[in-house]
Amino acid sequence: MDPLTLDALDRQLVHALQVDGRVGFGRLAEVLDASDRTLNRRYRRLLAAGVLRVVGVPVARALGQADWLVRMRCLPHAAPEIGAVLAADPDTSWVTVLSGGAEIACMVRAPADSLVLRSLPRSSRIGSVTAQRLLRPVAGADGWPGRLGALSAEQVRALRETGPGEPGPDDRPLFDDEDRTLLPILARDGRAGWSALARATGWSPAAVARRVEQLRRGGALVLEVDVEPALFGAPCGAMLWLTVRPSALAGAGRALAAHPDIAFAAVTTGSTNLVAFVACSGDDALYDDVLLPLGDVDGVDHVDLSPMSEMVSRSVASARPLGRPRGR
């Protein structure tokens, strides 16, 4: 079987879904100048291949929670089993194995004042564990730049015109108990039809549509596109843990945001106060294009690099490409 590749129309489709994850194929056809049947077929092909999906992600603060980045060092080859335990927790957004099986990183949602470490699995195979709260995204919050750029500015504007729009006076920004029935379905398929959502919730299709759009307008629910980075020439993934002087955080964040290989970056609590997710072409690019330029960024005192070995679970988190974490 020939390896799956993306042509220009596929890339436009991915970019368009990043702009509006629930845009209809009819509207896509108008903007992309292609038939709705062709676009539907392209989407289904990528979906069936497991390299693309749209997911609905609840924003942690809208749940009265915060996003926590947890890093565990463990015995060699123990990480996949421990990661599977973490992935089974519904509050875990994503889990990835790092450093050839000697580390795990995961994102969990928990109250901002929570003792997160108490809720994590305990095992003699786990060594050190740290938990850092995500304070603010500084790069990739609107999607990995490496998969954007297929659409013109005019096409992006046209898609946004038919998106959820700005919040209105009746939009409830926070989730309530009734909304929680929507989350597991949208986490699996952010494009689930109104009828399917209505059957799962017991609401009418019109009521479901109205509430989902309210949550999107209010910023409580975001639709994110997971796509395999290798299809964009970026099969190599890594996490960067940076220690940056507080006075230089803003500048370091801007430097990461301008880098095409940075899928997502955020300021966190802890001594490594800036974390970044890299998607690039290979080890040479990781060294030449990512690590070396970081040496010229003012205020970066220390960089710890952890290659990504395996994605145990994708939720949900991330900001972002399939196989690379999202961080809202």
TrEMBL record:
Gene3D superfamilies, alphabetized: Winged helix-like DNA-binding domain superfamily/Winged helix DNA-binding domain
Biological processes, Gene Ontology terms: response to amino acid
SMART domains xrefs: HTH_ASNC (SM00344)
UniProt keyword DNA-binding present: yes
Ranges in coiled-coil conformation: none
InterPro entries found in the cross-reference section: AsnC-type_HTH_dom, Dimeric_a/b-barrel, Tscrpt_reg_AsnC-like, WH-like_DNA-bd_sf, WH_DNA-bd_sf
Pfam families named in the record: HTH_AsnC-type (PF13404)
Keywords: DNA-binding, Transcription, Transcription regulation
Domain HTH asnC-type: 6-46, 176-216
Single GO cellular component term: cytosol
SUPFAM superfamilies: Dimeric alpha+beta barrel, Winged helix' DNA-binding domain
PANTHER family assigned: LEUCINE-RESPONSIVE REGULATORY PROTEIN, TRANSCRIPTIONAL REGULATOR AZLB
The protein, known as: DNA-binding Lrp family transcriptional regulator
